[in-house]
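User: Run a structure prediction on this.
Assistant: Running it now.
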Amino acid sequence: MMFRSKLILIFVLFSVIISIVSSYSFISIGSHAIEDRVRAQFDSVATLKASQFLMFMETEKDDVVRMSDDIVVHSLIHSGKSEDTAITSLDDLDVVVLRRLVHDNIIGESEDFEELFLMGLDGKVVVSTDARHEGVVEADQGYFLSALNATYVQGGGPGNRTGEESFVIAVPIKATGGRVIGVVAGKIRRTRMTEIVSDWTGLGETGETFLVDKYNYFITTPARKPDYALNTQVYTAGVNDCLAGHSGSKHFDDYRGVAVFGVYKWIPEYDVCLMSKIDDAELFVSMRGLMITTVFIGCGTAFIAILVGIWLSFSIYKPLNALGDIANDIGKGDLDVHNIKRTYDEFGDLGRTLVVMAHDLRKYQGRLLNSEKHQKAHLVSEVNRKTQELRRAIGNLENTRLAMLNIMEDMRQANSHLQELDKAKDEFLNLVSHELKTPLTPIKAHLELLADGDMGKLSKLQMESVHTLSRSTDRLNGIIMNLLEIARINTGKIQLNIDRIRPDDIAKQVYDDISLAGKEKGIKVSLQCGKTGFIRADRGRVRECLSNFATNALKFTEKGSITIFTRMEKGVVRFSVTDTGIGIKQEDQHRLFEKFFQAGRQDVGKPKGVGLGLYSVRKIIELHGGEVGVESEFGKGSTFWFALPRRGGGV
């Protein structure tokens, strides 16, 4: 195979391999990003549905408890008896009044119950909204035995004669003095739970949500199989994992045998599993579009790379071929070499060397002919020497070709690495802006619901945990915003709102922000402002930078003082914060304002950041045309400062 063909083949193979690897990586990363977004969406839906289900059950339980509290009092009032009348059982109350009380006061207010009934201490049903149930003894039922002591909620099971799935809420009935005289129980309709849980609005065409009880039976009606409710058990991988007490997400085959992606939550209060799912076919529609687009782009990139490779191959082969022809002519004795293309690379230098050698050989051949008798031995020696030099030159030509191939390989690897780094940066920023913030919204919303008591009253320890989670969520959101801020700075997309501001006002605002915290920590915070006049700058950005210095000073100062300064120096306004904290080591000071750098002074038990605060300050001040700096002695304190031009910034 000719050298030219080998070179072209190498470029084509490298181009195709790079395109295939790049396309595969892009498809893989994009697919994971799409799946993560769907997982976050369905997790939010599952959490919301679980909360709605729990709130619904709590509301119905409160209704039955209210009925238990009012039943004796209302019965005595309607029957004309005194509240001091000794009541030992439900038999002491008027059954007609009890029946009217159950029907009028409860059924008229709620349609969520399939049946409401009262049982005496022997478990016999005295009054029921279903007349067929009256007289039946329920003494062996778990909900009756448990309700004699306290309010009890029994999970799914067949309802009274209707065949519908129901939850039973049972509450003890207490007479005056706290004596238990019976039990009031209510069976919640399955259809009401279906209405709450099964609304799959916003989940796509194949998305749905349903409940499964601990015996693997459907509690609510599935969207595609309405006859499955209560009649069919489901043993999918997702349901089995959920009924084992776990919450999570995975791909599995659902009750139809169709591949789906599901998010499931175990609700231990009622021993039920809540499942939200979507068909894989719908989930991967966008992934297929991504794959097709990537394939087209990869093919186009490969075609362009092949063309470039062929052009480079000819660019290298053509001068090599010309030099080879010259070398062959010289080897045959043709030393009259003139047609050499002038280039200024290694090929040109080698060609010019060959021409010089050919001319030298021709000159020596002439001398040999003119003085053959006297210089024969000398000329033969010179010819041999020049011939060796020519051979070495030809050998150098081959070495040059190999060196060029090595250089091209190094350039390809360096270019591939740069492409990978650039792509990683873009993917990271895209992940921050579109994915990391996605789960924060439902997390913070539910934490606020918990903190406000919308999901029930929390204990003091639970409330402290909620506040800790909320603070951590705010800190994570701050880190994300810092990353986005750095991205905007690096890409030149940041805009400064330049205005006429007074430096003293900025310093006073920052002083007000930290003075109370300093007082609580036992640190003296003071403010010293010189005559600075006005400057033109972005008020919010300047305050952010000064606040960053002040907050860091408060963080790393355990005793002593913190002072905020503003003053005029040689045409610039200098802002500075001086503390008596732990200081910074000399070897760390020159890197403090670099991205992601964290100085040793954070190794003192303080929570670590991501090393972007001081880097952001430097970039913002440089956009104003100013500069930043630090002066510190380890163990004695630090002074962080930045200076802004008197007449404004450079943006």
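Residues 158-165 have pLDDT under 50 and may be disordered.
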